[in-house]
What does this fold into?
Amino acid sequence: MCVVAATGHADTSVGHGELIKAVDRALTTHGRALLTGPAGAGKTEVVRAVSAAAEARREIVLRLAPEAADQWIPEASAAALLASVPAAALEELSGPQRTAIAFLRREADAPRAGRDHVALRLAVVEVLRTLAVRQPVLLVIDNAQWLDAESTDLLRFALRLTPTRVRVLAAERVQGGAPVGEPLCGPGVPAVRVPPLGADEVAELLLRHGLPARLAGRIHQASGGNPRLALALGHSLAEAAEARDCSAHHADPLPVSGQAREVARRLLAGAPAQARRTLLLAALASRPTISLLRRAGRPDAEAELAEAERAALVRVGEDGTVEFTAGALPTALAADAGWPERAAGHAALAAAVDDPVQAVRHRALAVDTPDQGLAAEITEAAAVCRSRGQRALAAELGLLAAERTPSRLADDELARLVTAAEDAGWAGRADLARRATRAVLARDASPADRVRARLAVIDAAGQALGALEETFAYAMDEAAGDPALQAAVQLRIAWKHNLSDGDPVRSRDAAAEAGALAAQGGDQTAEAMALTVRARMGRILGDAGAEEILAEALALPAPEVPLGMRNAPQYLAVRHALFDDRLADARRQLMVLLPAVRRTGSAEDVFEVLRSLTEVELRSGRCEAASVHARRALELTIEAGLSPGPAWYVAAMAETMGGSFARAESYARRGIQASQEEQDQVFLSRSLHALGLIELATGEAAKAVATLRRVAELEAAQQVVDPSILRWHGELAEALIAADAPGEAAELIDPVRAVAHGLGRTGVVAALDRARALCLSAQGDADAAVGLLEDTAQRFESLRLPLERGRTLLALARVERRRRRRAPARAALRAAAEVFERAGAAPWTELAREPVPGDGAGSPVTAAAALTEAETRLALLVSQGASNQEAAAKLFLSVKTVEARLTRIYQKLDVRSRAQLATALRTR
It folds into this structure.
């Protein structure tokens, strides 16, 4: 018999496969196990999976699911359990035992003389023994924390006397009270805790429920990986977006209301009331610590936080810092507290914090009446935050200052709102930008102020510019007559044409108009940015004059850039160095820009620099450093609420080269989903390219062809001419060759190579030559292929592109293997492995360690080595029993192509049947 107790009803089939195995192992090994976790963690789903597996093994499954009210009714759970026992098991009981059970179940003919507790205990033992004699028994107790004390005592007695065919798994909610499961199952019971979902698993959970993937990072942060809370937050966001008649924005605040608030309340109920008062103060503080909470009037903060930590509500660091396990918890605490309680908390914190800015913030939040002096102090605090680069906090303070400004000072209030909007736009806080802009538009604001506020909303939108057509239209109308304002709007239109519309020609033309307007209005910063956009679009379109335009932009004065370093000519110069494989120059300039953008407080600027550093380090063969930058970029994206598509692309590339192909594929697919949701054509192409490279590396040639063809279509639609910006051409050619289409690959390579050669893109030419060599090999000219690959490997070495050199050596090994030259193939593989190992390219190192046919104790090189990669995949499928139709579906081919390819395989291996084919492959 197996006792399983759990709580929750969230969809936890995501991410809990290993957990279910751990439960099964514990039951098999010990016969007892304890499943624990907070409310909503998914314990019920785990229990259901264990129960289903037991039923499939024809075990008897008894289920018990007490509710909260049952814990106060003596023997309520015991009665419910016995009510589910088959009647045949009760018929074999002795008279006193049947009487005790009839009394417990309140049967009509039960005696009224009173209950016999000893007989009842023995009856339960006998029932379990009787059932276990026939079959193994699984007893499922869901919500064990709500067992009443008498039932718990009864079950503990009975389970001590059960045979080995009666196993016990008790699972319960983590909360402040005494645990039920361990006394029920006995001392030393193995504990299996339901872990929180990771960000990857939250993304999968959202996708399964039709919720936007681009919100996964923020929902993971807000939910702490709790599945039920994550889904509730996702649905709340979707409902809020529907109410606004627009899509949910990646930087929107997460609405902890409705179902989400109920889930958060249930989690918070695990802490005693006194601890929750301390938690409220922690929720109101920006950087809570034990010492701060003590100073704010909670002398027992340490002990109370320890209780909250046991209930999995907070984590307390060694230095006393307090961090909530789920970001929605402090929001729910503050929302449920009344205004007097919140005001008192802020007043206490204002006297306890040591940061003057935070002191002003808490003083402002402790009152709700206008105060001219306080509004001025808040405005000064916002200016301090701006100088520190804390633009999001500056925006929050600016809104507070406007709210505390007396109505007679309308001009001051309006100025504070406009500044708050611009701070929010800079910080990427779309919620604050919209809030400030709505307030500006509701007042008698000048056209200039209205335009500045609308531009803030555009700037805060990140990659999601496609949904702001109306905002652009109003901004253009209100900017009429002011060339400087018109230039600012036209600049954003140019960015939108590139990002959302994928139209570099329109982007270039809008930038040219913006530049002319900026020059007319005397705004040299905007003029430099307009030239930067023209240079960027010129590079995309293969315009040889793009570098001259960039030089013109760089020659203009370079003050602090109000529209972001990512849009400045200095940053574009770094990108061009990266495209040209001048990696040392790019790294040096990026290391200068990194501290500068951190000072400005623009999360998007910092992300852009981290993205470029990741790409530079990957191409330079420093995979570990690249992974660090990619990780920081992803963390920043989640923390700042930026568009996640670019960050997932960066993570995918870092994992592809230096981590795990499986993790890389997960990131790439999420990047694709998020970019599609935000209509971001630029990073959609990039994430698809990452996925295609992964599929090519892992031998999924047909899938790689399909994926990379989508990239080709997108790039063609975006009129991209320069092949150095996104180097997908060589990958698609290699995938076509692996898919047995060398002729099509050659048709792709030749024109692109001519463009790359004409533009001086030597790295691109080398990558295309690697593909051309594989094409020659597939067409039967192995000698020419080997010579070209050896030359290409040397060129990559001189260009200091080690990973490209390693990939070329891998290709050389395959060509040598195909023509049955074992020693050169082994040498190429060893050289490739050394290159990849030095670079920290773990997945590629594994690829380079694959055995060469003929290696080993005298094993012969067979004709199987002559198969192409596409033929090898088909041969393996067929030898494993796949029909022609099944193989065609698996490889994305027609049945006719499979039949023709299978005929060639039979001829090459000199076999006449599938059985002979399987034998030949085993020999290989």
Q: What stands out?
A: DSSP finds 47 helices and eight strands in the chain.
